[in-house]
Design goal:
Layout lengths: L1 H13 L4 H16 L2 E3 L11 H7 L5 E3 L17 H14 L5 E4 L22 H7 L2 H18 L3 E2 L26 H17 L3 E7 L26 H8 L5 E4 L17 H11 L5 E6 L3 H4 L4 H11 L3 E4 L9 H14 L5 H16 L2
Parallel strand pairs: 1-2, 1-8, 2-3, 3-4, 4-5, 5-6, 6-7, 7-8
Length: 369
């Protein structure tokens, strides 16, 4: 019997067969790739006719991002009508999924809220700037606790907050003018980010530091187009990340689409191996989940093809990519993403070890949810 098995194995190898490769290059690889994608979607309820439902039952995504405002103006409510509706929507999404999902939102506080009082959400909170101005850690903790407890009650498990950008540019459309920074002082930002994260931790809500390597020195909004920080960016914008990584508070980091020629002459941060692997993972020693900002922002979509952006981002060291389907609509984005990455691995444009690395980090985080 042993001789027959050895002979079969020899013939299989001679014929170029590899059982591990056959499995890995199909179902297993597809599953791992799917775990690297978070998408947005239209609708306030889930039906079997929805593209999202198809993605869920066919194991194409790792999570969803919830919006209350449709940036294209097509939908009045996007995903959020009222608390009861939203809680059921999230429950139905989880029920339909074959795997545990990241249920995510941008709920920073102040003006940056997807859960407006006009739709029955009565949790009014202070902005990062207001908290920084008060400069009381307990106040920040309590405000963050209100956010986290509300998210927990609705079914969320990840909040894209806090912002640890420094308020360096008063002309910044996306940071300073929206009161999204605690301060221009790195030490104050670190102090309040710690308090903010602590409250979320107590409710089991994952936090995500953003927008690496710093969006507070730019004037332009990367949602709307090219944002260049080359002239104004300084290394002190890395200080909050370094401190929060060193003390263990940094669980996950969101990488911005900001371009900085001093860091990478070709790519913005989210597509830059020099920035993501070189600085965030290398210099700062971060080993947690690395998440892109929305890949449909014009800073990316106006300057790179979908294939180039996805491949560059993964090769840069990003583990989770977001396609919000809010700035533009693409019901097929999950299938496109899976096919692009699968083919890139087959063609040698993405090392399968990079997929494995991301998958391992994602599954470890999900085990704690």
């Amino acid at each position: 019997m042993k001789k027959i098995f050895i002979l079969f194995l020899f013939l299989a190898v001679s014929a170029g067969m590899s059982f591990a490769t056959v499995d890995y290059n199909n179902t297993n690889l597809r599953h791992k790739i799917a775990q690297m994608l978070i998408i947005g979607f239209d609708g306030t309820k889930l039906s079997e006719n929805d593209p999202l439902y198809d993605d869920l039952i066919n194991d194409r995504i790792s999570g969803v991002i919830i919006f209350s405002k449709d940036s294209t103006g097509v939908s009045k409510y996007k995903n959020v009508q009222n608390p009861k509706q939203l809680k059921k929507l999230i429950a139905d999404i989880n029920k339909a999924s074959k795997t545990k999902l990241f249920i995510t939102i941008d709920e920073e506080g102040g003006k940056i809220s997807r859960l407006p009082s006009s739709r029955g959400f009565d949790v009014k909170t202070l902005s990062h700037k207001e908290l920084g101005d008060k400069n009381d850690e307990m106040t920040t903790y309590l405000e963050s606790k209100k956010i986290a407890s509300n998210l927990k009650s609705l079914g969320f498990n990840m909040n894209f907050a806090p912002c640890v950008d420094l308020a360096l540019n008063p002309n910044s459309e996306v940071i300073y003018k929206l009161q999204r920074s605690f301060s221009d002082d790195p030490q104050k930002v670190i102090k309040h980010a710690n308090a903010y994260i602590l409250a979320h931790n107590q409710y089991g809500i994952l936090t995500v530091l953003k927008h690496f390597p710093g969006h507070g020195s730019t004037s332009n909004d990367s949602h709307k187009g090219f944002a260049d920080s080359t002239q104004n960016w300084s290394e002190k914008e890395l200080e909050p990340y370094q401190a929060l990584i060193s003390n263990g508070a940094a669980q996950n980091v969101m990488v911005s689409h900001v371009y900085n020629k001093k860091l990478d002459e070709k790519y913005p941060a989210s597509l830059s191996n020099k920035t993501v692997s070189g600085i965030l993972k290398g210099k700062l020693g971060f080993s947690g989940l690395i998440i892109t900002d929305d890949m449909q922002m014009k800073a990316i979509s106006d300057n790179f093809s979908l294939e180039e952006a996805i491949i560059a981002s993964i090769n840069a060291g990003c583990d989770l990519l977001i396609f919000g389907n809010n700035l533009v609509k693409d019901d097929k984005i999950a299938k496109k993403f899976n096919d692009i990455v699968f083919k890139a691995v087959q063609d040698g444009k993405i090392d399968p070890k990079r997929i494995d690395e991301a998958y391992l980090k994602i599954t470890k985080v999900k085990e704690r949810l």
